[in-house]
Q: What sequence folds into this?
């Protein structure tokens, strides 16, 4: 099935945000110096359910969440494939925006996030999905999971919030927890797109001392491809997605 | 990316044996995926148990630390006892010499007269009459057998008289000076283990007392049914403030 480009645009949150929502988002922001304290930063962002939705998806209504998630699942299908027998892990699942619809299309969906507050919202949204499991990560990495367990590991709209070393750490960990032959998918926005440049300039406009910890930071094609190759993935490909995101996919050697 | 390897179709249509094998392969693949999902869940469960195990390890480390501190106190007390025993032996030897001396023998009639006078004189008033010992079932959460480093100490525990009467007050006496405590504190684990105590449904107590430097006698006492005080236990204690 071809990706629905119109839906995918919503992932970038172009919708206008209310002043009140913006104010709450600003109030929940940590300073850039705390960027590595992911648990603290994201627990703070996730205390308010609306702020949690805004910060991970850019919108709050359930219909839009479902629509953007569908768009992303189409991307997964067209890049790495999704099968009914797949055991799937999402890194940084947030409020389970993707996990909720994806769990209908795979054997079991595991959602991992470093923020217990986010997982609280996710649990509320997954009450009617028995084939889902949420796991709170203690720190950067997937040490909570065994090796050779998953058919598919993906991470979407997360890398922009991580430092580069931590991005690579998740790629390495994905290799460990995937079964031989398992597939991976990682995306981020690219600096050399219009959207990417706008986000970059938005960050540049912040006064130095008021840069928030969750400020989005881009990736390049070379960066994502290098992570996957260095980690040991094969069949590494970097995709230019229609929504100006770039994604790297790969396969764990047999 | 993954898929069932292509199988050459048999001439004249799909071979039912191939179709059966493909179905079997699909079933095996699903069972294998289910097994992996179950494996992840078991791994996660074990992780949670490990977290509890971590708490137990922390508690164990704390207990070992306390045990080591107790051993250090015990060693210190043993050395003091040895030193005091040596000093007592020296004093005994000196006393023996005095008793064997000509002057001691010469003063014997005077000492006898003094003893006779003392027998006739009334006994000096005691600071506090010593209470009788009672028979209690008791346990002390904070052991009194230690070197007291802080200016105050709180003795916590639980007790009841074995004759089934009610404890109506608890105190600690340090060299006869009384420190009143609180009693009637909840001890659900004790009641669970020993069964309900009708006269003492809440057998817990705590008494805070001062620990001035030096050697003292400590007596933990309970008042039974608003009347007589009875001793639960008594011991000598040694208080030595930090930095000495």
A:
């Amino acid at each position: 099935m071809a990706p629905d480009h119109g839906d995918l645009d919503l992932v970038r949150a172009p919708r206008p945000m209310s002043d009140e929502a913006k104010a709450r988002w600003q109030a929940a922001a940590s300073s850039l110096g705390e960027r590595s304290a992911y648990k603290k930063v994201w627990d703070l962002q996730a205390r308010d359910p609306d702020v949690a939705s805004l910060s991970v998806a850019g919108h709050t209504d359930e219909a839009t969440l479902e629509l953007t998630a569908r768009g992303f699942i189409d991307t997964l299908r067209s890049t790495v494939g999704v099968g009914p027998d797949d055991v799937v892990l999402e890194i940084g699942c947030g409020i389970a925006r993707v996990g909720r619809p994806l769990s209908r299309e795979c054997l079991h969906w595991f959602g991992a996030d470093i923020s217990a507050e986010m997982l609280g919202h996710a649990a509320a949204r997954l009450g009617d999905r028995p084939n889902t499991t949420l796991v709170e990560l203690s720190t950067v990495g997937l040490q909570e999971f065994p090796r050779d367990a998953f058919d598919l590991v993906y991470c979407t709209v997360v890398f922009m919030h991580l430092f580069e070393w931590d991005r690579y750490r998740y790629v390495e960990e994905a290799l460990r927890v995937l079964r031989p032959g398992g597939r991976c998918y990682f995306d981020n926005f690219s600096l050399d797109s219009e959207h990417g440049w706008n986000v970059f300039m938005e960050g540049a406009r912040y006064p130095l001392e008021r840069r928030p910890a969750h400020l989005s930071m881009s990736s390049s094609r070379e960066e994502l491809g290098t992570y996957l190759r260095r980690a040991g993935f094969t069949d590494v490909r970097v995709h230019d997605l229609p929504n100006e995101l770039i994604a790297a996919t790969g396969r764990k050697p047999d | 990316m993954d898929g069932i390897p292509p199988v050459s179709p048999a001439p004249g249509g799909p071979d039912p044996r191939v179709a059966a094998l493909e179905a079997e392969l699909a079933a095996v693949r699903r069972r294998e995926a289910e097994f992996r999902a179950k494996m992840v869940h078991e791994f996660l469960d074990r992780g949670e148990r490990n977290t509890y195990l971590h708490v137990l390890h922390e508690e164990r480390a704390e207990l070992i630390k306390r045990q080591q501190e107790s051993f250090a106190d015990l060693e210190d007390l043993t050395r003091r006892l040895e030193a005091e025993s040596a000093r007592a032996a020296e004093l005994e030897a000196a006393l023996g010499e005095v008793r064997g001396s000509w002057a001691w023998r010469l003063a014997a009639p005077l000492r006898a007269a003094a003893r006779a006078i003392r027998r006739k004189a009334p006994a000096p008033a005691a600071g506090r009459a010593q209470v009788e010992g009672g028979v209690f079932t008791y346990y002390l959460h904070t052991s009194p057998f230690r070197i007291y480093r802080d200016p105050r100490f709180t003795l916590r525990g639980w007790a009841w008289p074995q004759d089934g009467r009610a404890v109506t007050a608890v105190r600690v006496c340090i060299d006869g000076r009384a420190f009143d405590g609180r009693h009637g504190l909840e001890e659900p684990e004790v009641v669970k283990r020993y069964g309900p105590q009708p006269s003492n449904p809440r057998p817990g107590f705590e008494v805070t007392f001062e620990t001035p430097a030096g050697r003292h006698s400590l007596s933990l006492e309970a008042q039974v049914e608003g009347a007589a005080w009875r001793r639960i236990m008594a011991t000598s204690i040694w208080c030595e403030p930090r930095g000495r």
Summary: Residues 1-15 of chain A have pLDDT under 50 and may be disordered. The first strand of chain A starts at residue 87 and ends at 91.
